[in-house]
Structures
1.
Amino acid sequence: MPDTHLSIRIDLANGNRIGPGKIALLEAIQATGSISGAARALEMSYRRAWLLVEEINNTLSEPAVTAEMGGRSGGGASVTPAGEKIVDLYRKIETNARSSAGTEFRALGKLIRRGK
Amino acid sequence: MPDTHLSIRIDLANGNRIGPGKIALLEAIQATGSISGAARALEMSYRRAWLLVEEINNTLSEPAVTAEMGGRSGGGASVTPAGEKIVDLYRKIETNARSSAGTEFRALGKLIRRGK
C-alpha cells in the first residue's frame, strides 16, 4: 500500500484542534510570505485562510502568524517562532507515529480493497 | 495538559479514510449489536450510521459489518472478524503514536492558551 498515509489530529485541552490542514497552512505561509499566497498555494479562499489563522492564533498563548494588513505590498505575513515550534512538534509527532506503524500498515493493506 | 488528545486518520490507497468516527461506530456496533443502537449511543442519525457502515464496507475486501435487515428484532448487526481486525489495528497505531509523543505533547502544552 504505497499510498496509504497516516495523519494526526491533536485535540487540545482548550477545545481547539490542530490537524494537517492548519499545519499545511502555516508551512505555506512560511513558503510564500503571505496569507494570500498560502491560500492560493492550497487552493483555499483567502477568507478561509484568514479564519484558520485566527483560529490558530486564538489557540496559542503567543500568535503563530503575524500579518501586515494592507500596505503597498498587499500585506505580508510571517510565521513566528511559536508558530515554527508548533509545526515542528506536529511533524515530529507525525513522523514518530508513522515510523512506529509499519507492521500495522502492512496488515491493514491486506484488508483494503484495491482501486476505486 | 491532561486533556490534550491525539487521534489519527488513515488515508487509504483507494481514496477512502479511516478515522476516529468510523472506528467508534464499529465499536458501538460491537457493544450494542445493532446499527440503530450504535447510532443512538453516538448521538448520530440512523441514516448517517448506515452510510458510514456502507463506506467502511466498500473500503474493504470483506465487509466489516453484516446486518440483518428488518426481521422481528428490528434487525441486528455484527462486526465481522475483518472489522474487528481494522478496529484492533487502528487502536494499536493510535496507542503507539500516543506513547511515542510524550515529550512533544509536553512542549505543545506550553504553547497553548488555557481555558476557552
Note: Chain A touches chain B through 41 residues (CB under 8 Å).
2.
Amino acid sequence: MSFDRLISKIISMKNPTVAGLDPKLEYVPDYLKKSFLDEDGETLKAAAKAIFKYNQQIIDAICDIVPAVKLQAAYYEMYGHHGVKTMERTIRYARLRGMYVITDGKRNDIGATMEAYTAAHLGSCTIGESECEPFGADALTVNGYLGTDGIAPLLPVCKQRDRGIFVLCKTSNPSSGEFQDLLIDGVPLYARMGDKCEEWGADTIGAYGYSAVGAVVGATYPEQLVSLRERMPHTMFLVPGYGAQGGGAAGIAGGFDKNGLGAIVNSSRAILCAYKKEQCDERDFAGAARREAIRMREDLMTYIKIG
Amino acid sequence: MSFDRLISKIISMKNPTVAGLDPKLEYVPDYLKKSFLDEDGETLKAAAKAIFKYNQQIIDAICDIVPAVKLQAAYYEMYGHHGVKTMERTIRYARLRGMYVITDGKRNDIGATMEAYTAAHLGSCTIGESECEPFGADALTVNGYLGTDGIAPLLPVCKQRDRGIFVLCKTSNPSSGEFQDLLIDGVPLYARMGDKCEEWGADTIGAYGYSAVGAVVGATYPEQLVSLRERMPHTMFLVPGYGAQGGGAAGIAGGFDKNGLGAIVNSSRAILCAYKKEQCDERDFAGAARREAIRMREDLMTYIKIG
C-alpha cells in the first residue's frame, strides 16, 4: 500500500532506474521480426508478436540490474488489440522475472469509469463467480485534471492490492508550462497538483516514508524537482526526460531525498536502441541494452548516494 | 477536417445526441451472455464477446435515429485485450452502420508518444509496406494538461483524414472545480483551456463554423456552458452528464448556438439499461434503448431548434 516494494528493489540493486519499454516496430532488428512477418504478413498481429519477443529479450537482459520497467500504452495501442495483447503479455513476463511494472497510460476519468480503469490496470474484474486480472501492473500513471473524483477510485485498490499511481505534476516537455506553470495566488498549478498528491496519499505512507500516490516530475526542470522534493516529502517521483530529452543526472539528483531515495528515473529509447548507437551486431541488441542500463546506473550513482 | 460530417448527421436526423457505449457485463441480459459463458467459461474472452453482441444490437436499434456513438475505453480495457478487440470491432460495426464514432479515451502524452496514440485511434501505422488502421474512430477525447506538445501531434491527422478531437475543458463531475475553476488573473483554468482549443483549431474551421478541435463541457454546469459557448465560437462541445449525473435539457440548451448547433449530448447508462428501467422483457433491451433514445431526442428538441 505504498511504494515500499519498488523502493526495496531500488535499494538492493542500488539503481533508481526504470527502463521504458516503448517499442516501435522499427526498433526491432530485422532478423527478429522476419519470421513473424513471414508467418502473418505485414499485419498488426505480426508486429505485435515481434515486439513481444523483443521485449522479452530486453527484460531477460536487464532484470537482474534494473528494478522496474515502464510500458508506454500508446506504443501498444498503435498495433490495435494485438498490440494490447503484447502489453498484457509483457507485463506478465516482466513480473515473472521479478520486475516492478509501471503502465504509463496517463489514464483519467471519474467515478465508475475510473473504477473500470483501476480494475483494468491494477485490479481485477469479476466474471460470473471468477475473478480475472486484465493487465495486472504494479503501478499506473494518471492525469489529475478532473480532481479528486478521478483519483479517489484508485486508492482502495492501491491499498488492498499494494499498488501505486503516479499523477502528472510537472511534465518534461517544452510546453508543459502553458497550463502547469500558471500561477494561482502565487502558486503554480503543478505545485497545487503536488499538494493534492500529498493529500491523496496521506493514509498510505509506507516504511520508507512514501505513499502509494507518486508524481511525474520531468528531468528537464531541475529547479522544480528540487522545490517539489521539498514540498512533497511523501510523494515518490517518476522522472522522465533523462538523456534524450536533455535532462542530466546532476540536475536529477535534486529530486532525491537525503537517503538517495524518493525518485525513479526513466530511460526508454536510449536503452531500447542502444545497439543502434553502439553500431554493434543487431543480434546483440539486448546486450547493448544492458550495457546502456549499466552506463546509466553509473551516471546516476555518481550524483546519488543510496542509504 | 472539422466536425462537418458529424454536424451534417445531427442536422439530417434532427438529433444532437451521442449514445455512450459504456457496457459492463452486468448490463448484458442473461439470455445473451449465456452462450458465450458456456463456450468460453467465466473468462474475459467470453465477457468481451457477449459485450460485442450486445453493442451490435444496440447499434442496429438506434443507427437510423442517433448520429453518433461514444465508446468509453475504460469499459473495454476492463476485459483486457479481449475487451479492446471488442472495442475495435464495435467501432468498425458502428461505422459500417453509418454512425460517427467517438473513442472516449481522454488520452494524453507528448511528441512521438502522442503520435502513436493518434495513429492508434484516428490514423494508421505502417508495417513493412502495408498501411494498417488499428482502431479507426472518427474522433478521440484528449486531456490537454501537457499543453500544445500534447495536442499538436493530433492535428495533421485530423486534417488529412477528416477526424476530430474533444479536449477536456470543464468536466461534469462534482470535484471538477478543484483545478479547472482555479482563477489565473481572474480567468478560470477551464476557460484558458477553452482559449487554447480555439487556437489549436484555428485553421480547421469547416462549413458550419466549427473546427476539428472540440471541447468536453459538462451538462452539470449550465452557466459555464453558456459562457464557454460565447467564448469559444468555433469549438464543438461534447456534453456529458445528461440525465444520470443531473444535467437537464433546459440547462444544456445554453451550450448550443443560435442555429441549434455546436454541441452533442451524451447519454450512456440511460440508453444501455433502458430495459431495466422499463422493466420490459430483457430480450427487448435494444428496443428499450431505441425508445429511450427517442425520448431523449424529444426532450432535447423541446429546447433546441436546429436550423
Note: The two ends of chain A are 22 Å apart (CA to CA).
